[in-house]
Amino acid sequence: MIVWINGAFGAGKTSTARELAALLPDTTLYDPELIGDVLRRLLPGKRLAEVDDYQDLPSWRRLVVDAAAAVLAEVGGVLVVPMTLLRQEYRDEVFGALAARRIPVRHVLLAPAETILRERIAERREAGAPEGVDERVRQWSYDHIPAYRQALGWLTADAHVIDNGRLTAAETARRIAEAVRTDTAAVCDIVQTPEPTRETVAAGVLLFDDRDRVLLVDPTYKPGWEFPGGVVEAGEAPARAGVREVAEELDLTLDRVPGLLVVDWEPPRSPAYGGLRLLFDGGRLSEPQAARLRLPGPELRAWRFVTEEEAAQMLPPQRYERLRWALRARERGLPLYLEAGRPTP
Fold first, then answer.
1. What are the structural domains, with CATH classification, of the chain?
2. pTM for the full model?
3. What integer pLDDT is reported at residue 72 of this predicted model?
4. C-alpha 154: how far from its chain's center?
């Protein structure tokens, strides 16, 4: 199990984590800042200059999960992780990857009032830091307060919130320990999709409204929007898998087997596996049907009808290319075969 202590820079995460590690049995303290330090030494300066924060590096997000899984496999017990995550898509990616490894996460947010937060930042000192480092750290913390303020909406809905403005680190740790013991800080409700161990076949279904906008869904377990659908199970017909996924994800029963639009071979990109990605035409939904769409489980956060231009801003590039060619196939009435999102000559 992981107890992930989130909050703004200066909220007291690290000091609280140290106290908590002494309270919970079989506990190991794991600070993902160490992964950032390693990447600063490993990656070329040119690559580091392209990002404002090491969390923007896909390698950081992958390594944080891989290292957490490795430590838990080595020592077991509880991993206490003090780490700020203010971008919801990064939280989705990290927590989703942990869930895929069957590692439950209890998400705790330390949320002192902003006035107290600013006071703590002003008093912050880095032990043994060279001259000038303290001021840079303080400025960094101040600069991220607006991002923290903006993230509070989803953070407070997602995490167990503790106002530690008037609490010591030890008192805060005792509250977290009690919340963990009593299940008040519940396991993060995120879908647990096992990581593939080989290439997979996945089926997506395109659904349209009366303005020919396409329906996209926002998964909680990975960044970026998606099409309704999922991995085809053993012995299952791909089109039937798409019908099943639409029913599970949107509480919508399709009255016919959808027609094929594209078959796209997705090459493997380490550490992920590729495979065949199929898109089917689920047809046009009437206004009453669209009004009845529901998100029955924790797998999806939202759904939305969008134009092709809007989809280009919401989908990862290769997924958008798959959609673009699927729409052309729908116009022509002929399915297309793609490789890496592009038709073969």
1. 2-181 (3.40.50.300), 200-343 (3.90.79.10)
2. 0.65
3. 93
4. 12
